[in-house]
Amino acid sequence: MVTGPGRRHRNDLPIGRRVAELRVRRGMTQQVFADRVGKSKSWVDKVERGVRNLDRLSAIEAVARALGVAPSVLLRGKTRPEPATDVGGAVERVREALARHDVHGSGSDGPQTPSSVRDLDHQMGYAWTAYRNGHHLQVLRMLPDLLGDSRRVCHAQAAEASAADLLVRVHRLAAQMLVKLGESNLAWLAADRAMTAAAGDPRRVGLAAISLAQALRALRRGRLAMTAALAAVHQLDPAPSHERPPEEVTLTGTLLIEAALAAAACGDAAAADLTARAAHLASMYGDQHHRDDDGIGFGPTAVELARAITALSIGDHHRAIAIHRCATSAELWQRLPAEHRAAHLIDITRAHLDLGDARAAGRALVTADGIAPAEVRIRPAARAALTAVLHAGPTPADVARLAATVGLTQQ
After folding, report:
1. Predicted confidence (pLDDT) at residue 397 exceeds the cutoff of 80
2. How many degrees, rounded to 5, is the angle at CA 216 between CA 215 and CA 219?
3. Is pLDDT above 80 for 2?
4. Beta strands at 296-297 and 290-291: parallel, antiparallel or unpaired
5. 141 to 23, 92, 132, 240, 344: CA distances (angstroms)
6. What pLDDT is recorded for position 87?
7. Percent of the chain scored above 90 by pLDDT?
8. 106 — alpha (psi -120 to 50), left (phi > 0) or beta?
9. Angle between the 202-218 and 184-198 helix axes, to the nearest 10 degrees?
10. Which letter, b or e, does each residue of 225-253 get, where b requires 16 or more Cβ atoms within 10 Å of its Cβ?
């Protein structure tokens, strides 16, 4: 499509130009489109000309719905690669947001704080989608406002159960993002806030306990992590599995996986039994049952990946690699979120390196970078693994290119 001098790929178009193109394709005038999104014709015209930025997720959702497309269609090509040095400042802004307790201020956009739990819950849906797709810098940029806005809105609507749900979701996302970035103590704080917001509700406690267990494992408190996950399991409905709703079984299975990983991390033999319990639940409901709105993906493949990492944790590297290869060669592997797949590939590099196979470790990192680049380019664990690969011997060209992109050099 010609958009000026020369040609530009459609994914490179500014978001306003993509809105205009889709609107015209659907035969809508600016006025008709404005009526559908609840805005003025002048607002639409400014968005399409790039005079007004379309950068709030609630607005993007409304526009996408009116156009009959997924929000990702509008966002595609919008995000540009950013240097890892941006991460430190973003983490500090999250830290500041967690440290604040005021309920009367406004967000970074002034007085435009979302007016309802529902508005924020929609934004959280996009934030979790970005997280699952590995768009971690986007998530980091969103978190400070989400933390502040949710605190203020939920203070005003504290009587609503949905307010507690929102606070749990926001703080869980913050905790899981911070674990990835090596900010374990800050992650524990966010996860503890999620547990407080859960207010004893079994489902909310279970969701919060997932992130709490991850934060405690990152702090090398494996037994505490296992205890937290299993305590949450015990609070859920004790009815037989076949009588429980799929979403509850999914939550229970995910908690059992977290407990198994924590057990393996501290050398507890219970890891095998816990993964077996999770596998039993997964065999009943299958990989198609995901609670994507809560950031959970559970099924047989997720259980097998956990088996591989528990084997790795207890030093059985050959078994870890065998399970990994079987699980990742199956069709269901591709159904897991990009974040989950890339994170697993980074974890399994430890087994390759301990077995002296630096080439396989390098291939795993390059593959992970192709799936979710931010997993490799901003996570300390990935940088450490890549450094180990560089030091292990001759480096293949694709690994060398990745190292240069990340900012590492072979010594």
Report:
1. yes
2. 90
3. no
4. antiparallel
5. 29, 11, 15, 42, 24
6. 86
7. 48
8. beta
9. 170
10. bbbbbbebbebbeeeeeeebebbbbbbbb
Distance separating alpha carbons of residues 24 and 20, to the nearest angstrom: 6
Instruction: Give me the count of residues in the chain.
Output: 411
DSSP letters, 144-183, are HHHHHHHHHHHHHTTT-HHHHHHHHHHHHHHHHHHHHTT-
Q: pLDDT, tens digit, for every residue of 12-45?
A: 567 888 888 888 887 788 998 888 888 899 999 9
Three-point CA angle 201, 206, 208, nearest 5°: 95
Is 207 in contact with 198 (CB distance < 8 Å)?
Answer: yes
Check: CB of residue 91 under 8 Å from CB of residue 178: yes
Whether the predicted model's global pTM rises above the 0.85 cut:
no
Q: What is the pLDDT of residues 145-157, one digit of tens each?
A: 999 988 888 876 6
Residues 110-132: pLDDT tens digits? 444 455 788 888 888 889 988 99
Write out the two tokens for 374.
């931010």
CATH 1.10.260.40-classified regions of the chain? 10-75
pLDDT digits (tens, 9 = 90+) for 271-296: 999 999 999 988 876 554 444 456 67
pLDDT top residue among 310 and 245? 310
Comma-separated ranges of CATH 1.25.40.10 domains in the chain: 85-323
What are the Cα distances from residue 28, in Å, to 21, 36, 228, 300?
A: 10, 10, 54, 46
The pair of structure tokens assigned to 339 is 């974040």
Q: What is the mean pLDDT of residues 298-304?
A: 91
Pick the CATH number of 10-75 from 2.40.50.140, 1.10.1040.10, 1.10.260.40, 3.40.640.10: 1.10.260.40
Q: Please, which residues have CB within 8 angstroms of residue 267's CB and are 6 or more apart in sequence?
A: 314
For the ranges 199-213, 231-245, 379-393, the lowest mean pLDDT is seen at: 231-245
Rounded to 5°, the CA angle 407-408-411 comes to 150
Closest to 322 in 3D by CA, of 337, 311, 313, 333: 311
Q: What is the CATH number of domain 85-323?
A: 1.25.40.10
